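Thread: quick sanity check before group meeting

JM: Hey all, I'm pulling together slides for Thursday and realized we never actually wrote out the predicted structure for the chain we discussed last week. Dropping the sequence here so it's in one place. If anyone has concerns about the input, flag it before I start.
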Amino acid sequence: MGAASSREDRLSDSSDEEEYEEEEQETTKNDAQIEPKSTKFHTPQKTTTQSPNSSSSLDDIDSRLKALNLKYNTKQGMRNAVKLYLHIGGNTPNAKWVVSEKLSNYVFVKKKSDEGSDDEGEDEGDLWVLEVGSKVRARVGPGMQLKSFGNQRRVDFMANGVWALKFFSDEEFRGFVRRYEECLFENTYGFEANESNKVKVYGKDFLGWANPEAADETMWEDAEDGFGKKGDATPVRGNEGLREEYEEVADGVGGIQSLALGALDNSFLVSGSGVQVVKNFSHGIHGKGLYVSFSDGKNYKRGVSASSAHLTPKKGLLMRAETNMMLMSPASDEKPHSRGIHQLDIETGRIVSEWKFEKDGTDITMRDITNDSKGDQLDPAGSTFLGLDDNRLCRWDMRDKHGIVQNIASASASPVLNWTQGHQFTRGTNFQCFASTGDGSIVVGSVDGKIRLYSSNSMREAKTAFPGLGSPITHVDVTYDGKWVLGTTDTYLILISTLFINMDGKTKTGFSGRMGNKIAAPRLLKLTPLDSHLAGANNKFHGGQFSWVTEQGKQERHLVATVGNFSVIWNFQQVKDSSHECYRNQQGLKSCYCYKIVLKDDSIVDSRFMHDKFAVSDSPEAPLVVATPMKVSSFSISNAR
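JM (edit): ok, ran it. Output follows.
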């Protein structure tokens, strides 16, 4: 275990330039193949400031090039002139920035998607592409992970490698960023980025999302926090404050598919062939207990057919004071939808029933299930849970229509879950994911990027529908009090405040009513282009969520998401703090790049914080559990700064 640092600011001396020109293609290729060797803690270095003694800054390279009497005035007459840099060496000690072209130029051009860039993807018609000299062609989109540095007149981005552009004036820098945003809007929504089209996309109530400088920041500035004053969230550096406590090798075939963390004695590792029980401790999960295998049929109760049950679970949902688990298996490898669930009795280690999803006598599918509320898995009498499909949102009950628990032991066929509440939408809502608050309100994310809020007593019509930013929402979470929503896309996380002030001057959430037009612009949580490149081949975000509390008045302290070989941790208060240094010199929506990274030597399946009750006196947070297909590790976070 060791510390690694982002080399976002480390730029090579110009004397390396000729050597690089000969080795450029091979070096770039090798850069993408670098694999981490062990668990590491990684923090990106700050890029808004530079040491005056640094010999590797962009400005230092400029001065050295000027000292060589290079004819800088050759840029006169060249439109959109820039200097082009490439990052080589990955995360090795030899990593550095090198000058790729001393003087180049960029252009945004519209091309067919199959010919417009070096990126792989489906043909989507005419799209804007960024071209820089003869070396860079990149489709304008979130996948570029473009990051701007106003104080350096610089942008970094991904395009089969990590590149940087340095501009010769502030005006040229601002012009590039403005044109990039216009092209991004058009590529995302299919029409020109003008005011009328922005109203069409976002709606009049959400124009602050299109023009963040004019948005209401009150809800961010007044954000309450129970563990520190505003501005007191100084980021820890290196590996300080993070310590690996336990590492377990997982049992079973097929590897870990998901984590089912418990708030009581045990947590569970769900694999394609079984469920492994592990013990909960104040410093993480450790110690193997019962292993329930699904492959041999021995752990199926009489009447439940192992051969007929397609049991390769991707998700486990704890219920009834964590004595039962609902296991959800996809009906096919291509789609996540399931026709039913299997009920595991944890105390006996046996599958006791296979439940069917059915409505009005017709078999239907579900793509996800979750508890009625944040703390519902602790209810010993719980018999209901929520279900989601592409165009359905509902509540299922394991009791029959008269409220009687069904006798699953004597049922000759699979018992049928009772659809007790919900709505089947006629038009394509394309629901993807959902989560519940402490009081049972529901947030739902969709393919079109929209995030809808439903009250605890109505699933027919959303109280609030956030427009999103065009990228599909693949995972969603919400705080216990319902004040904050976190949506996950492939390339960023979006943090939304649901708070608003109603006609009576009272502060409410968007789960209870229409929010009006004083709506705060969201915050984005991103990786730097370099870190996104180093995360591995599967560098898409998934599973972003808050730390776990189930008690009113307690505030979540951190956010965590998984991307490739990284588990990425943000300080929640720091993200909310509008004066945080990360937001200085930014244009557009505020994006937070101040995070901690746990780096593993394999692609990470899931990252979750344990329940708040497992936070010890010397830690501001419960342990973080990180699972790869064959191992699960626990990390503690200390108060050290």
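AS: nice. The longest helix spans residues 170-189. Residues 399 and 494 are 38 Å apart (CA to CA).
JM: adding both to the slides.
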